[in-house]
Design brief:
Blueprint (H helix, E strand, L loop, with lengths): L8 E9 L2 E4 L18 E8 L2 E4 L5 E2 H11 L1 H6 L1 E5 L6 E8 L2 E7 L4 E8 H22 L4 H15 L4
Antiparallel strand pairs: 1-2, 1-3, 3-4, 3-5, 6-7, 7-8, 8-9
Helix pairs in contact: 1-3, 1-4, 3-4
Length: 166
């Protein structure tokens, strides 16, 4: 089992290159991403729990927008105990509710389908979730130099959220 910095949950961003989905951490050259439309980065966000995928293979969306929404709107979770965001191109919601000081409930659903509903330890979930976001922003900052300043701003926002966890 591969654990992310000791946590049992991991968020992986994969982008569509040609007809394949590639983990952003496996991309090493500009040539690999030369055909990426940085305005709408098609991809998947996989959620891995105890080494097993529990969400992500069947949902393709604009992952740059999803992670951007997280950076620009997650403050609501700390203020209200709830964070609800729609996937950019689909009628699928990602809803996170704080149910106790140390527990959160995640539901990813559309009007007719619940893709995932699971409770997690709050601090572990948030640290891993934020690490997934930062990983994406570092990736885009490296390969999409036109947005480097914006990616740095988003990294700083996520890092500020990380400080609120403990």
């Amino acid at each position: 089992m591969v654990l992310l910095r000791g946590f049992m949950i991991e968020f992986k961003s994969l982008i569509k290159i040609n007809e394949s989905y590639i983990d952003i951490n496996e991309i090493t050259s500009y040539q690999q991403v030369s055909g990426v439309d940085w305005d709408y980065v098609a991809g998947k966000i996989k959620i891995i729990f105890y080494g097993h995928e529990i969400f992500g293979s069947n949902v393709v969306d604009d992952i740059n927008w999803f992670w951007g929404f997280v950076a620009d709107g997650f403050e609501d979770f700390f203020e209200k105990g709830i964070y609800d965001v729609g996937f950019p191109s689909q009628a699928i919601n990602f809803t996170l509710i704080k149910i106790k000081d140390d527990m959160v409930d995640l539901e990813i659903s559309s009007k007719d389908t619940v893709y995932l509903r699971k409770k997690f330890i709050c601090s572990e979930f948030l640290k891993s979730f934020f690490e997934g976001a930062i990983s994406y922003f570092i990736f885009e900052k490296k390969f999409n130099e036109n947005e480097a300043n914006e990616m740095e701003r988003k990294i700083c926002l996520i890092e500020s959220f990380n400080k609120k966890i403990d």
